[in-house]
Structure formats: structure tokens, C-alpha cells
From TrEMBL:
Keywords: FAD, Flavoprotein, Monooxygenase, Oxidoreductase
Pfam families: HpaB (PF03241), HpaB_N (PF11794)
Domain HpaB/PvcC/4-BUDH C-terminal: 287-485
Binding site for FAD: 156-158, 199
GO biological process: phenylacetate catabolic process
Source domain of life: Bacteria
Organism taxonomic ancestry: Bacteria, Pseudomonadati, Pseudomonadota, Betaproteobacteria, Burkholderiales
UniProt xrefs under Gene3D superfamilies: 4-hydroxybutyryl-coa dehydratase, domain 1, Butyryl-CoA Dehydrogenase, subunit A, domain 2, Butyryl-CoA Dehydrogenase, subunit A, domain 3
Domain HpaB/PvcC/4-BUDH N-terminal positions: 17-279
Descriptive protein name: 4-hydroxyphenylacetate 3-monooxygenase, oxygenase component
MF terms in GO: flavin adenine dinucleotide binding; oxidoreductase activity, acting on paired donors, with incorporation or reduction of molecular oxygen, reduced flavin or flavoprotein as one donor, and incorporation of one atom of oxygen; oxidoreductase activity, acting on the CH-CH group of donors
Length: 488
């Protein structure tokens, strides 16, 4: 095996949390936070709880191994790497993805399973990577085995920073801002510039995938590539945003203190990429087809729909507890709000089932979920999710504003708190626990980041609508209506 596809201490198959932490300590990425380099990523206060959560997710998969793991070559591996060949494979993957999402109540948008589905799609459609004349299929298959057999976590980036959003990176006033090739050698290529947005920058590896819709010109070829690297690669830095973990602990901040996955800008400073780590190079046509032709878009969207089903289930449970605790079940506007969330839940489950029922083999022999239901799901959810959060805010009202902390409950005013903060069916301490969760799901910095994340998870919703409009001309339906008009 190439040194580029090896670990100093390999662990074969599905790993445990301790394996992830050991590798992070041995090969930490260069993270920058509020102007300073993070010296100890594992124990850095704004990130340590998110790091611990990711480690716990690896232990969780062993606790749910019947659904989340499968045996390949006499070793247990994550089922999220499955290359689906028939519907039973897809259904098994779906059960694993739902189970994995339940670990975080759907709050981890970059559960490693998300990018695992991409890498599996590329490997299952590896011949695609030879279409442009260069033979990268071997790289794709070897990397898939490397990541699956070591159960690595990936972050990724697919966006170029552009001051002028109407033109591509090659035509900006400063074309060196976006990550681009500066040199090519027999051993590999060198990359300099920035890429957006790397969520989970403390992952093991980063996948730098093509930015969509590159213009077809020689000037843009230096920006047309896909490659994968360890996040600890020399010359690679990550600038992190403010943490949404306030440091208040899970009692006060039940979501933010657990599920801070962090977002960062990736900066490449003359970073060397070995050829065996390259998936495509200077081929704009391949870059523009990269996701759809391989089935990766459908498979990662399928994972997201599973995650979103679980996320809505969490909110249904939360809202139901708020209604019951405050005795609000007699109000009709409450019924309508609950029905809005319930209908969205049913829609997401129906989209998932429809995508499974309509799954077809692609040109490379990999079973891919039907795209149309998934496209509908990813168009609907960014509109549904802010409404769900708004419903929590409307039901919680001022009760989400004046919440004591666990320190208050342990302080000298406990008797007054017990008297003032009780609800119809909840003692004060129980109501405070419930409403702190509702606050963290709807009001806090964590909640705000979740709303923004879901709004733009798949990019500009207007561009998404344009894609749907262009790809669905409804010609047959127009003919049917015209036939009705003309019938006598």
C-alpha cells in the first residue's frame, strides 16, 4: 500500500471512539480559533465536547452493530460504506442511517455517514473516473478501501470563495484566492488558496471535491480537481468560526454542549497532493458530472433525508412534551401547529420510501435511490425546518427567555424558583430542563446555526428551484391539458 494510503497504526474495520481519539492526538489538524492556533484539539474547550461526541458515535455503532455494521472480508465495517447492488442492500443502509442519526437526534449534519455514502458511490461507479482520458478509477477504489477499512471520518469542501458571485474563480480580480493548482510534478500537484466550508475540521481526512458549474475554459482548469488528504497535511490550515458551545455543560446547553461539529475555511499554502490521492484533474466536464453520474448526490441526499426524519421526530417529541407539560392540548391553534410538523414528518418518510421503491442501477452497476422524491425532499425541508423551529418558539413564548440555570437550581433561591417556574403538569426543575432543551433547539446560537445550515445545506434554494424547473418541463402534462381543452 502507498504511504499516502496508510496509517502509522492501522485498525482494521469499524473502530471505537478510543481509536479516533488516539489518531486525532497523533495527527492533529492545524486549527485556528480567534486568532490563535489550537494547541490541543482534543482538549480545547470550544471543541472538546464535539470531539468527544464524535468518539462516542464510533462506540455507538458497536452498541448497534446488528444494524450499523456488516461483515466484509472477515472484518466488521460500517454499513454506511455499503456499495448497494439491490434493494435489500439499500433498505439495510437506510436502517443503519436512521439508527445512526438517532444518536444525535439528527443534529449532526456531518455525521461521517454522509461522506461515507459519497465515497461508496464513487467506488461503486469507479469507471466514471476514467472517462476523461486519465485513469483515476484505481485511486478511487483504493481510497474507498482505505477509508472503509480504517473507518475514518471525513470533512469536505465544495465551494470557492468569490467576491464577485457572477463569475468563476479564474476571473475574479484576484484569481489566487480560491484553491488552485500552482505546480504539477511527476509525484503530484501543489495547491494554494481557500475553500469553503469545511464542517467537522477535526475529522481524519478532507475531501476537496469539485465546485459545481465551472465554466468550460482553459482558465478554469487550474480549479478543476478532486482530491483527498489527511487534515494534518503540512500547509493545510482551518480557520474556525465562534463555537456554539457556550461552555455551560449539557444540563444548561443540552444540544450545543454535545453537538458542536464546527465549520471552518480551509486554507491551502503550497499543499502537496500525491497523484494516488487525486480523483480527477483539469477536466471540467468530469467535475460537472462528478456527483450526479456516480449517484453520489442521490446517496448523500438519501442519508440527509434519513437524518431529517429523525430530526423531525425529535421536534415532535419535544413539542408534545411542551404541550402536555403546560396543558395546551385544548387550543386549536396548537393542534394546527402540531399537524404542520406531523405532516412534514410523514412527507419525509414517504419521500424516503418512494426513493427506495424507484431505485435503479446506474450505468456502472450501483443501485441508486430514485432522485425525484429526494429532490422534492431537499427542496421542501429548508422551508419546513425554520417553520418547525418557529413553532417551538411560539409554544414556548416568554418561557424560553427567562430560564434559570442549573447553578440557580443549586443556589439559595431554589425555593422561589420551585414556586415561580412550575407549569400545569411539571415541577419547576422538570420544566426548566425541558425548556432549556427547547431554547437550545430554537433560540440559542446552536439553534441559529442549525436553521442557517438547513436553509443552505444543498446550496442556494433559488438555484435549486431553477434546476427543478429546467429538469421538469411537464411536457406530457401540458399535452394532457391541451387535449382536454381541445376535446369537444
Amino acid at each position: 500500500m502507498s504511504k499516502a494510503l496508510a496509517l502509522d497504526s492501522e485498525y482494521q474495520g469499524a473502530r471505537k471512539g478510543a481509536d479516533f481519539l488516539r489518531h486525532l492526538e497523533a495527527c492533529p489538524p492545524e486549527l485556528w480559533y480567534q486568532g490563535k492556533r489550537v494547541e490541543n484539539v482534543r482538549n480545547f474547550a470550544p471543541l472538546k465536547n464535539g470531539v468527544a461526541t464524535l468518539a462516542a458515535l464510533y462506540d455507538y455503532q458497536w452498541d448497534h452493530s446488528v444494524l450499523m455494521l456488516e461483515t466484509v472480508d472477515d472484518r466488521k465495517v460500517s454499513r454506511s460504506f455499503s456499495i448497494t447492488k439491490d434493494r435489500s442492500d439499500l433498505l439495510a443502509v437506510g436502517k443503519a442511517l436512521l439508527t445512526g442519526a438517532q444518536f444525535s437526534q439528527g443534529m449532526l449534519g456531518r455525521d461521517p455517514a454522509y461522506l461515507n455514502r459519497s465515497i461508496a458511490s464513487f467506488a461503486g461507479s469507479a469507471d466514471f473516473f476514467d472517462i476523461g482520458g486519465r485513469t483515476f478509477s484505481h485511486n478511487v477504489k483504493e481510497y474507498f478501501r482505505f477509508v472503509r477499512d480504517n473507518d475514518l471520518a471525513l470533512t469536505h469542501t465544495i465551494l470557492n470563495p468569490r467576491a464577485n458571485r457572477r463569475i468563476g474563480p479564474a476571473f475574479q480580480d484576484d484569481p489566487t484566492v480560491s484553491a488552485h493548482v500552482t505546480r504539477e510534478t511527476d509525484a503530484g500537484i501543489y495547491i494554494t488558496g481557500a475553500r469553503l466550508v469545511a464542517t467537522l475540521p477535526f475529522a481524519d481526512e478532507i475531501a476537496v471535491f469539485p465546485a459545481r458549474l465551472l465554466d468550460v475554459s482553459d482558465a478554469s482548469k487550474d480549479y478543476a480537481f478532486a482530491f483527498v488528504l489527511p487534515t494534518s497535511t503540512a500547509g493545510l490550515k482551518f480557520i474556525c468560526r465562534d463555537s456554539v458551545d457556550y461552555g455551560m455543560g449539557p444540563k444548561n446547553h443540552p444540544l450545543g454542549a454535545r453537538y458542536e461539529e464546527m465549520d471552518a475555511v480551509a486554507l491551502f499554502d503550497n499543499v502537496f497532493v500525491p497523484w494516488e490521492r487525486v480523483f480527477c484533474y483539469r477536466d471540467i466536464d468530469i467535475c460537472n458530472q462528478f456527483y450526479d453520474a456516480t449517484g453520489a448526490t442521490a446517496h448523500i441526499t438519501y442519508q440527509v433525508v434519513c437524518k431529517n426524519i429523525v430530526k423531525i421526530e425529535f421536534f415532535l417529541g419535544l413539542i408534545s412534551l411542551m404541550i402536555r407539560g403546560s396543558g395546551l392540548e385544548g387550543f386549536q391553534h396548537i393542534h394546527e401547529k402540531m399537524a404542520d410538523v406531523w405532516a412534514g414528518w410523514q412527507a419525509m418518510k414517504a419521500f424516503k420510501s418512494a426513493s427506495e421503491a424507484g431505485a435503479r442501477l446506474n450505468d456502472f452497476g450501483m443501485l441508486v435511490p430514485d432522485w425525484n422524491p429526494l429532490e422534492a425532499a431537499r427542496f421542501m425541508f429548508p422551508r419546513l425546518y425554520p417553520r418547525i423551529v418557529e413553532i417551538v418558539q411560539q409554544i414556548g413564548a416568554s418561557g424560553l427567555v427567562t430560564l434559570p440555570t442549573s447553578e440557580d437550581l443549586d443556589g439559595p433561591l431554589r425555593a422561589e424558583i420551585d414556586k415561580c417556574f412550575q407549569s400545569m403538569r411539571l415541577e419547576a426543575a422538570d420544566k426548566i430542563d425541558l425548556y432549556r432543551l427547547a431554547w437550545d433547539a430554537s433560540v440559542s446560537a446552536f439553534a441559529g446555526r442549525q436553521v442557517l445550515y438547513e436553509r443552505f445545506f444543498f446550496g442556494d434554494p433559488v438555484h435549486m428551484a431553477t434546476r427543478i424547473f429546467r429538469n421538469n418541463p411537464c411536457s406530457d402534462l401540458m399535452d394532457r391539458v391541451n387535449g382536454f381543452i381541445r376535446a369537444k
